[in-house]
Write a structure and sequence with these properties.
The complex is a heterodimer of chains A (226) and B (238). Chain A has ten helices and no strands. Chain A is an all-alpha fold and 226 residues long. In chain A, α2 runs antiparallel to α3. The radius of gyration of chain B is 20 Å and the shape is elongated. Classes of the chains: A mainly alpha (226), B mainly alpha (238).
Chain lengths: 226, 238
């Protein structure tokens, strides 16, 4: 514990940087995936190509993605590269969640909205979006957790965050430092996850509190087809 | 596009066959670490996942485990285990961390495969007099195979990415050229090695996608569309 107590300031500072580098891609990937996922769901010809593309993006190892983004003009050793790469992975996860979430809504509900005169814009924001909420939230939780943990790889392209504790601790053979880094990352991921769950309860008060509503693969919706 | 030409020139340069780490050897190391770790993880996780799927017990533990694993930073885990087990045994330590990272996806694939089976099919098996052992091997295992392969697919991709990162501890593999290229400011090497890693990951992904399709039994092939989807339960890119 001595190392941790002596270096609280360093850990705190790195945690803040780490949060900034993670929150930006988490928010960005939600904002980007929403229209992309909607388009893939709404226009059938786009669906296969979009979902295949995001699936392939997801398979690219992070170091490989850093280099590919650098080849496209983003400086290799920069915060921007890390944030863009994390956003790419986030979009890959979230796009799938958006189409899954929209798929899970009972077509009769949507038809009723149309029948009472909702236009496409109003129908999306007052019917489709809130009803796909549980699946979107589940996707967002996966995105948030993996983004926070993956951000540590940034240290290999010279971007400082909690990953610094890994490489610095390894080089100096300070086991405590590496362990502190791992624990800090896991704790941040869990706290952010918890905040997202609370946010979900506040935004979707109509959902039952228990019963696996928030699990990713099982949207509990009237007439859900899975 | 010049950068890509330089990268391909780096890949196909005759220098890649000599030097401290020839490129074919690095690819071989990468593949060997990946398959070795996934095989060990499968030996541990497949029976356990089948047990959870067959009995329906311990599912919450498995779900929590795969959720927690997503939060675990792979670089941190590799470096931590190397320090704990000892720098002299860094290969063993790295393999242990690869195995740990591969287990959640395989476990999830194994039990999710069993869970996805229609209960009526299992009841039918029991009704015609199948023993629990026969139900396991003749119904649950074959029907659960596509999702299990999906779990192996996620695990493999996760390990391919982590082996790249593990070059940091001097393990070889394709990440070696990436990290060395950054130190020497040779972007052709960085991009060249990255292209090879990406190609490796995409080929393995394709291979598993194909396998996932092949293992669907004839009788259920008509509704195989949903079963062949890649499983993303425990996996995060690394």
């Amino acid at each position: 514990m001595n190392w941790v107590l002596d270096n609280l300031e360093l850990i705190g500072g790195l945690t803040l940087v780490h949060l900034r580098q993670s929150v930006i891609p988490i928010v960005l990937s939600f904002l980007i995936a929403l229209p992309v996922g909607w388009a893939a769901w709404r226009f059938t010809p786009l669906r296969g190509a979009t979902l295949t593309t995001v699936g392939l993006l997801y398979t690219i190892p992070s170091l490989g993605l850093f280099a590919l983004l650098a080849a496209l003009g983003i400086p290799l050793l920069s915060d921007t590269n890390l944030i863009v790469a994390l956003t790419v992975y986030g979009v890959a996860i979230m796009t799938r969640s958006v189409t899954d979430g929209l798929d899970a809504i009972d077509p009769a509900t949507r038809a009723s909205a149309v029948a009472v005169g909702f236009g496409p814009w109003r129908r999306f924001w007052t019917v489709d979006f809130p009803l796909s909420g549980p699946v979107l939230l589940a996707g967002l939780r996966v995105t948030a957790t993996s983004t926070i943990s993956l951000a540590t790889v940034g240290i290999l392209i010279g971007v400082q965050n909690l990953g610094y504790l890994f490489t610095n601790g390894y080089q100096r053979r300070i086991l405590e430092e590496v362990l502190a880094g791992v624990v800090a990352v896991v704790v941040i991921a869990l706290v952010v996850d918890l905040l997202l769950v609370v946010l979900g309860r506040l935004l979707m008060p109509w959902l039952p509190r228990r019963g696996g509503v928030l699990t990713r693969r099982a949207p509990v919706m009237a007439g859900a087809t899975g | 596009m010049n950068l890509f030409l330089d990268a391909f020139a780096w890949i196909f340069s005759p220098d890649r066959l000599t030097g401290s780490l020839p490129l074919p050897l690095a690819i071989w190391q990468h593949v060997a670490f990946t398959f070795g770790a996934v095989a060990i993880a499968a030996i541990i996780a497949v029976p356990l996942g089948w047990l959870i799927g067959h009995t329906g017990r311990g599912r919450e533990v498995a779900v929590a485990l795969s959720g927690a694993a997503r939060a675990l930073p792979s670089l941190g885990l590799v470096l931590l285990l190397v320090l704990v087990i000892g720098v002299v045994h860094k290969t063993e330590a790295a393999v242990v961390s690869f195995v740990l990272l591969a287990i959640p996806s395989i476990l999830a694939g194994a039990y999710a495969g069993f869970e996805a089976i229609d209960r009526a099919v299992i009841d039918a098996g029991r009704a015609v007099g199948m023993t629990p052992w026969q139900i396991l091997w003749k119904i649950e295992v074959p029907l659960g195979l596509p999702l299990l392969i999906g779990g192996l697919r996620s695990a493999t991709l996760q390990v391919v990415a982590t082996v790249t990162i593990a070059a940091y501890v001097g393990l070889g593999g394709l990440g070696f050229f990436f990290l060395q290229g950054i130190q020497l400011q040779r972007f052709d090497a960085v991009l060249g090695a990255s292209i090879v890693v990406v190609a490796l990951a995409l080929s393995l992904d394709g291979l598993f996608a194909l396998l996932q399709r092949v293992v669907v039994p004839h009788g259920v092939r008509s509704r195989a569309g949903t079963a062949a989807r890649p499983l993303r339960l425990g996996a995060a890119p690394a």
